[in-house]
Write a structure and sequence with these properties.
Elements: H1 5-9, H2 17-31, H3 39-55, H4 58-65, H5 86-94, E1 113-119, H6 121-126, E2 128-139, E3 155-156, E4 165-172, E5 175-182, E6 191-192, E7 205-216, E8 225-228, E9 244-250, E10 257-259, E11 262-270, H7 271-276, E12 278-284, E13 287-293, E14 302-305, E15 321-328, H8 335-347, H9 364-372
Parallel strand pairs: 1-9, 11-15
Antiparallel strand pairs: 2-7, 3-6, 4-5, 8-9, 10-11, 12-13, 14-15
Helix pairs in contact: 2-3, 2-5
Length: 375
């Protein structure tokens, strides 16, 4: 007499696949041999396993409903039956992600894209607007991302019957083990595009060149990345687009060196100008600026121009412009210039200056002597 697998699992004859799966998992947790080693319980576990194998397979379930033998006479008495649904038992005990099973969507998120944007110091310091040409993938307007030609649609895969996966029975120490893998015919999608769109060749997207206008904020610097959400490539199957990243490349400036929000530069002046004082006109990012060099300025001194640097990124205020002074000593003098300098040195009593040595400015032999003395 044919077995009633619906009664074995305790479900109605019109139960859905989800109801059948829940009933099997509930019973598997109660009757598994690792939980209950009683021989009668083990036999009961084999029965519910065989019932689930039949009712979870549309073809075997239909054969059972028609009164036929889904196992072709092999029965379910040997081992764990003709097919042991090992993955579902693991789901029952460990809660593995059953939602990942079944057909997967053709629509996937698009890739991110990165382009380099070269800026001058003034553009990166104060911000600018650029029009960028981007080669990217966009949604196919002919099929609207479905990948199928006009007037057609994807057909249900006749190998996996829309499930996106196929089962295979192998032998193991547990008996016969049923494993599932993505369907090789449809690639796990559960459907096959028999008539692909001629515009996108079934991908659901096409490549094109487009122009976008972007605003570069003030204060960016070399290496800064700006994220433009949703401006990347459209995904396969009409999936959501990725993001577009702008990598800032700051061109070197002929005068200024940028260090964070501050700008640095060096100005060279003759020793007479440093001694007597002078004024210079300098071209800054804000236009010409008058710089006063005080009398007695030494080489290496810094003249600050406050708030003449670049704008702080996402903050108010600006950095400073720091001017480093380099005092030049003349290399060649004509006789008249030499005579004037000698008179100046006599007036200042500097014909034979004693010199001033800063701490640690020892000669080579002094340092060598200290090393031998253990200092």
């Amino acid at each position: 007499m044919a077995k009633d697998y619906y009664a074995t699992l305790g479900v109605r004859r019109d139960a859905s696949q989800e109801e059948i799966k829940k009933a099997y998992r509930r019973l598997a947790r109660e009757l598994h041999p690792d939980v209950n080693p009683d021989p009668a319980t083990q036999e009961r576990f084999k029965e519910i396993t065989a019932a689930y194998e039949v009712l979870s397979d549309p073809q075997k379930r239909q054969m059972h409903d028609m009164g036929g033998d889904p196992f072709g006479g092999a029965g379910a008495g040997a081992g764990f039956g003709a097919g042991f649904p090992f993955s579902d038992i693991m789901d029952a005990f460990f809660g593995t992600a059953s939602a990942s099973r079944g057909p997967r969507s053709r629509a996937r998120r698009g890739r991110n894209a990165t382009i380099r944007v070269e800026l001058d110091l003034a553009e990166s310091g104060f911000g600018t607007t650029r029009e960028l040409v981007v080669d990217t993938a966009i949604l196919c307007e002919v099929c609207q991302g479905s990948g199928a030609a006009a007037g057609t649609h994807p057909d249900t895969c006749d190998m996996c019957h829309g499930r996106g996966e196929v089962s295979q029975v192998t032998r193991s120490f547990l008996g016969q083990v049923m494993t599932s893998r993505p369907c090789p015919q449809c690639g796990g999608f559960g459907s096959v595009i028999r008539h692909p769109c001629q515009e996108c060749s079934g991908d659901g997207r096409v490549r094109t060149r487009r122009t976008i206008k972007v605003r570069i904020p003030a204060g960016v610097e070399d290496g800064t990345h700006i994220q433009l959400a949703g401006e990347g490539e459209v995904g396969p199957g009409g999936g959501p687009p990725g993001d577009l990243f702008l990598e800032i490349v700051e061109r070197p400036h002929p005068t200024f060196e940028r260090r964070g929000d501050d700008l640095h530069c060096t100005v060279s002046i003759p020793m007479t100008a440093a001694a007597l004082g002078t004024s210079l006109t300098m071209e800054t990012l804000d236009g010409p600026e008058q710089i006063d060099v005080r009398p007695g300025t030494q080489s290496g001194q810094v003249i600050p121009l406050y708030a003449r640097g670049v704008q702080r990124l996402n903050e108010s205020g600006r950095g400073d412009l720091l001017i480093h002074v380099n005092v030049e000593t003349p290399l060649k003098l004509d006789p008249e210039q030499e005579e004037l300098l000698r008179k100046l040195s006599q007036l200042r009593g500097e014909e034979r200056p004693p010199g001033k040595f800063a701490p640690g400015q020892q000669g080579f032999f002094s340092r060598l002597k200290d090393a031998f003395n253990g200092r």
